[in-house]
Design brief:
The chain is an all-alpha fold. The chain is built from six helices and no strands.
Length: 132
């Protein structure tokens, strides 16, 4: 037994421990993956709760400058889409020689869809009676 204890002495335990730690970091079990997903979901949920609180504080602000920021952006995007998809094609059809300006539709689309998604969530909250 002495030769066996010499093999597994402290000098060989340290490299084995380092190698096992590296393998443990490289390969995660299903339980660890599930635990990580639960933690990520909790963090995302907490982030959404904080953003919802910020939104309600902004919307209830007395200043038009703070409370009116989202409606202003919705009007700008709405007018931009009106110009890009209705007015500009009609102008190009009636006056083909005049070059029409190009609007950043991808940015407006991203902003508008984000705001419409928030508005849809707000509608669901109102239907369920979560808010007044």
């Amino acid at each position: 037994m002495t030769w066996l204890s010499n093999i597994f002495s402290v000098a060989t335990k340290e490299p084995l421990q380092v190698v096992s730690n590296i393998i443990d970091e490289l390969y995660t079990s299903e339980e660890e993956v599930l635990e990580q997903q639960v933690i990520k979901a909790r963090l995302l949920n907490k982030q959404r709760e904080i953003q919802a609180h910020i939104n309600s504080v902004q919307a209830s602000h007395r200043s038009r400058f703070v409370a009116g920021a989202r409606p202003f952006l919705m009007w700008v995007c709405g007018l931009g889409f009106l110009f890009a998809f209705v007015i500009n094609p009609i102008l190009q059809w009636l006056l083909p020689d005049i070059g029409a300006p190009v609007l950043p539709l991808d940015v407006m689309l991203e902003l508008t869809l984000g705001m419409l998604g928030l508005a849809g969530l707000r509608t669901i909250e109102k239907i369920k009676g979560v808010t007044k």
